[in-house]
Amino acid sequence: MDQKAARDHETDSGQNKVRFGRLRAAGRRVLPLLAAAGFAFLGVYLYGILFPAPLPPSQAEIDASVNQILASVTPQPAYSTTVYQNILPSLVFIRVTGEDANEDEGYSIGSGVVVTDQGDILTAYHVVDNSFKIEVFFADGSQAAAELIAAEPENDIAMLRPDKLPEVVVPAVLGSSNGMRVGDQAFAVGNPLGFVASMSAGVISGFDRTLQINELGDLTLEGLIQFDTAVNPGSSGGPLLNRQGQVIGIVTGLVNASDEVYFSGIGFAVPIGTASAVGGSGPDY
Predict the structure, then answer these.
(1) Residues 106, 148: one domain?
(2) What are the strands, taking DSSP E only, across the chain?
(3) Which residue range is the domain that position 133 belongs to?
């Protein structure tokens, strides 16, 4: 090798050494960055394994969620709807043939409620007073003749027994007026003015009221429940109910501001504790 070639070889070797030195320096700077990136990737990978992303909901799950939301904003049925459905199978329409004060024959109507498995019916005594024929019509459309089996005229309460029962006998659930307070909801179901199975709603207005019943020879009734639930002629003998659909009284009369017979916002009922005890037929509430 001549001297010129030797010098060129030494020059190239020196340049290569410089390049390799620079590469090693650059490698030392980049290596930590690559290591950090590797650890970050490994961390993301392990997180994905340990905490997988939730699967998208199925259509069935979406539909169920929508239905739940709709149900939460849909108002519940009114208490009155449930009360009416509960008492309707126990409600009775009463038609009475008898004589009026002028001894003229005619018929009148009233309401009643089935209270025993034998189909016995509680009603107001003045509904069936002076009668020689009593007919009862049940909620399923069946009808029967009925007889008076017990009465307490002093409380305006009577109990009837039909000679033929409906296919299904549904006694009403008896409650108690003792737990009621003024302002509590009250529902009356009956046959006012002949409108069968009508319902009205109101509140309890007072307790331990006194009322004079002209139909029973100016009898004075005491210890009555006062309510503002609308009742009219034909409602007498029907049930007064609480918001659970339990019978808390038997409608006995109303107060009028004039001689005209119409509802003026004040009705009265015999407490069920008194009414259900007629003839020893019920518990003492």
Answers:
(1) yes
(2) 91-99, 105-114, 121-123, 131-138, 143-152, 157-162, 185-190, 198-213, 219-227, 239-241, 247-254, 267-271
(3) 82-162
68: in domain: no
The string of pLDDT tens digits covering residues 51-100 is 666 667 777 877 777 677 666 655 666 678 999 999 999 999 999 998 76
Inside any domain, residue 179: no
Residues 6+ apart with CB under 8 A from 32: none
Identify whether residues 87 and 158 lie together within a single domain.
Answer: yes
CA-wise closest residue to 96 among 52, 135, 45, 148: 135
Residue 167's identity, in one-letter code, is E
What positions carry a catalytic annotation? 126, 156, 236
Same domain, 195 and 262: yes
| pTM of the complete model | 0.71
**In total, how many domains does the chain have?**
3
How far, in Å, CA of 136 to CA of 120, rounded? 11
